[in-house]
Inverse folding.
């Protein structure tokens, strides 16, 4: 399998570097989510982890599980359980055997880097109004449900 991926790989075939490269940096998985107890519907909020930088990077990536025990940690063996991932998420797309979006960095390493970065930035939460989760009491999170995550 070449890198980037041709043909589309199975998740089990990816090494750790390839697995990590699937992330396009949208940070939608770092938004706080609420799940309906009755029908398991997942609702995204505009609340993001307190450790998220303005450019959608975790500022404590190596210690994230220690500092935020419920931090999402996407692992190959668990991806089937991540039904809540946005339909644009590369991990979800590869798991469902759907090609990556044309703007994904693995499809666009150099040739269209400027276009790719522009589109990718629009896909990320950085283009939206987000609030650090530690500034809003958890009982008020329902007031922050959004509908711009696909």
């Amino acid at each position: 399998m070449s890198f980037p991926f041709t043909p589309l790989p199975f998740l089990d075939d990816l090494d750790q570097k390839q697995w990590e490269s699937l992330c396009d940096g949208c940070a939608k998985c770092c938004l706080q989510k609420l799940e309906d107890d009755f029908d398991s519907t997942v609702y995204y909020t505009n609340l993001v982890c307190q450790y998220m930088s303005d450019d959608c990077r975790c500022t404590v990536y190596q210690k994230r599980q220690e500092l935020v025990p419920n931090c999402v940690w996407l692992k190959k063996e668990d991806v089937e359980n991540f039904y809540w991932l946005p339909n644009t998420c590369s991990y979800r797309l590869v798991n469902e055997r759907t090609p990556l979006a044309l703007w994904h960095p693995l499809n666009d390493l150099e040739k269209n880097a400027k276009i790719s970065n522009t589109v990718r930035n629009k896909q990320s939460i950085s283009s939206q109004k987000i609030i650090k989760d530690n500034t809003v009491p958890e009982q008020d999170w329902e007031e922050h449900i959004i509908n711009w995550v696909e």
Q: What stands out?
A: The beta strands are 31-35, 42-48, 131-132. The first strand starts at residue 31 and ends at 35. The first helix runs from residue 16 to 21.
